[in-house]
User: Fold Molybdopterin adenylyltransferase from Trinickia dinghuensis.
Amino acid sequence: MTEPTRSHPDEIVIGLVSISDRASSGVYEDKGLPALEAWLGQALASPWRVEKRLIADEPEQISAALIELVDTFGCDLVLTTGGTGPARRDVTPEATLAVGTKEMPGFGEQMRQISLNFVPTAILSRQVAVIRETAGHAGLIINLPGQPKSIQETLEGLRDETGAVKVPGIFAAVPYCIDLIGGPYVTTHEQVVAAFRPKSARRVPPA
Ligand SMILES: Nc1ncnc2c1ncn2[C@@H]1O[C@H](COP(=O)(O)OP(=O)(O)OP(=O)(O)O)[C@@H](O)[C@H]1O
Ligand SMILES: Nc1nc2c(c(=O)[nH]1)N[C@H]1C(S)=C(S)[C@@H](COP(=O)(O)O)O[C@H]1N2
Assistant:
């Protein structure tokens, strides 16, 4: 894959993957993809488009979806939800590590820290993040837990009663990571999540 065709130079292409045996077989309605899309709609200030998949907890299907999204669709970022726990069929971290060329352990570490503010079972999520690099492109892949409310919790973090950020969500670090792997310049709405970039990496706003 070379870089994807973007409708705007700053457009980010995002893959969304909901991994659930029951949602993918119609036992319950999938709430993962709508929650991911709704959160991105509130958070992103720069242009974006998504490519979505709903699949079962099958390692081959998960790895194949991740490869297709990064290599064929040119996704700069892929967010997965589900399958990160200790149950026998929870295999999302293994399937993600299998397609990564670099592991990014900080994302999983920070998400477990954030989630501990919401549930004591946060440590049961084995979520990981990786970068998948091909000859002409790279994509950041991040696992989120399956509980739909955990999507906002981990991406956005936690605020106190005055609205001040108590624990930063992991999305604060995503735009700069996308810069570093050669992707588009992503901006966010600060009232949802303030993206952090070192001063030298900030785009100077037009006068
Ligand atoms: N895609 C989804 N849509 C709606 N709710 C979900 C989804 N995925 C998970 N949940 C909810 O979060 C809980 C924990 O998610 P988890 O990924 O551990 O599911 P699970 O028990 O492995 O089952 P399944 O893979 O069939 O969703 C589920 O029991 C369900 O209530
Ligand atoms: N923010 C947040 N993190 C969370 C949760 C949650 O509700 N909110 N649920 C935990 C639970 S109960 C489990 S078992 C693990 C793994 O969930 P998964 O298998 O659905 O990915 O995520 C944990 N992390």
